[in-house]
């Protein structure tokens, strides 16, 4: 597999080397347009997804969206399981917001986005599945696609090591991509080389560094393939 | 105000606080909720998930169960005043 595309715009939230006070003020600004009754439903993870996405799309911009997360709102599911174990009734709100496409749903409501919204549960291939989904939409004729990767640290209960399942930071990366236009041209390809560079949360940190820094290419190995992204000239 | 009205308005205030706490209406206070305004849609702006959440909170706090099969849910949830009336009648 080999495919070229243009990154029209990308944004990370929270910033990699942020300042807690500044970030929290900026986060408030970025969430200001979200209706109040919807905002109360946003978890900390949903908030960073909204902040990354908001920087990539203009107001009233309607665009198909692909979300990708390894663990989604697992912390919410875990706390519900603890409540069930303790014999307590589960909150209907918490349940409705714990499903893997919960943030995608909130996003569609907040932006009144009636176009296609896809939620990828990223497995050991990591970032690749989200990219393949978004590139497929471009191939089908979508002018541009918003692609949002996000994850938060795993609840202590789950063993992250040595499986490289998570990092200790919450992060969202949004990319608005197209087949042509002004922006950073990237080539994505698969290689037969195998290894284990971790699942999406671990890969995401490497991919953000690749986008932000002068590195010409990034290869991420998984147990079945490797995936490579190269910066192309022109 | 006689004691009956008094106990009613204190139950209404208690319900308003329960609504604020259980539905994450963080920046609201009980003074912002009118006992007679509609809770759903055009009034306070609550939705169907809120109805389920509020039903659970009422069951936990007052041990009063709202049965969608038997009770007139629309009437019970019409306003804080209607809800207070229902809880009072069920507790006796």
Topology summary:
The complex is a heterodimer of chains A (234) and B (92).
Chain A (H helix, E strand, L loop, with lengths): L1 E12 L6 H11 L5 H4 L4 H11 L10 E5 L4 H12 L6 H5 L5 H10 L5 E5 L5 H13 L4 E8 L19 E8 L5 E8 L8 H13 L4 E5 L4 E6 L3
Parallel strand pairs in A: 2-3, 2-4
Antiparallel strand pairs in A: 1-5, 1-6, 4-5, 6-8, 7-8
Chain B lengths: L2 H20 L25 H15 L10 H4 L3 H12 L1
Can you give keywords for this protein?
heterodimer; A: alpha+beta; 8-stranded mixed β-sheet; globular; B: mainly alpha; 4 helices
Description:
The complex is a heterodimer of chains A (234) and B (92). Chain A has 234 residues and is of the alpha+beta class. Chain A has a single domain, classed as 3-Layer(aba) Sandwich (Peroxisomal Thiolase, Chain A, domain 1). Helix content of chain A is 34%, strand content 24%. In chain A, 36% of the residues are buried. Chain B has 4 helices and no strands. In chain B, α1 (3-22) packs across α4 (80-91). The longest helix of chain B has 20 residues, at 3-22. Chain B starts with a helix and ends with a helix. The mean pLDDT of chain B is 90. At the A-B interface, α5 of A face α2 of B.
Q: What's the structural domain tally of chain B?
A: 1
Radius of gyration over C-alpha positions of chain A, nearest whole angstrom: 18 Å
Give Rg of chain B in angstroms. 12 Å
Q: Give the quaternary arrangement of the chains.
A: heterodimer
From the 3D structure, determine the CATH topology of chain B. Answer: Non-ribosomal Peptide Synthetase Peptidyl Carrier Protein, Chain A
Distance between the termini of chain A: 21 Å
Give me a quick take on this structure:
The complex is a heterodimer of chains A (234) and B (92). Chain A is 34% helix and 24% strand.
């Amino acid at each position: 597999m080999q495919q070229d595309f243009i990154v029209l715009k990308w944004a990370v939230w929270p910033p990699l080397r942020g300042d807690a006070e500044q970030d929290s003020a900026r986060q408030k600004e970025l969430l200001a347009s979200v209706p109040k009754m919807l905002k109360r439903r946003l978890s900390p993870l949903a908030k960073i997804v909204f902040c990354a996405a908001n920087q990539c799309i203009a107001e009233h911009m309607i665009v198909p969206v692909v979300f990708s997360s390894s663990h989604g709102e697992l912390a919410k599911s875990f706390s519900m399981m603890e409540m069930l174990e303790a014999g307590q009734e589960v909150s209907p709100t918490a349940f409705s917001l714990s499903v893997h496409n919960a943030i995608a749903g909130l996003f569609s409501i907040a932006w009144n986005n009636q176009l296609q919204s896809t939620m990828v549960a990223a497995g050991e291939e990591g970032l690749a599945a989200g990219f393949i989904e978004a590139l497929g939409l471009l191939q089908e004729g979508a002018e541009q696609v918003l692609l949002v990767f996000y994850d938060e640290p795993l609840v202590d209960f789950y063993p992250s090591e040595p499986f490289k399942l998570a990092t200790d930071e919450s992060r969202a990366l949004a990319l608005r991509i197209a087949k042509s236009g002004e922006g950073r041209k990237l080539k994505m390809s698969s290689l037969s080389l195998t290894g284990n560079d971790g699942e999406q949360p671990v890969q995401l940190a490497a991919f953000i560094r690749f986008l932000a820094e002068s590195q010409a290419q990034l290869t991420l190995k998984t147990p079945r393939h490797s995936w490579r992204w190269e910066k192309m000239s022109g | 105000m006689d004691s009956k009205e008094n106990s009613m308005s204190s139950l209404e205030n208690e319900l308003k606080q329960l609504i604020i706490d259980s539905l994450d209406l963080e920046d609201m206070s009980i003074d912002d909720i009118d006992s007679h305004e509609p809770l759903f849609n055009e009034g306070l702006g609550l939705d169907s998930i809120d109805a389920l959440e509020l039903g659970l909170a009422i069951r936990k706090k007052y041990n009063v169960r709202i049965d969608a099969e038997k009770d007139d849910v629309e009437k019970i949830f019409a306003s804080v005043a209607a809800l207070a009336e229902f809880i009072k009648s069920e507790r006796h």
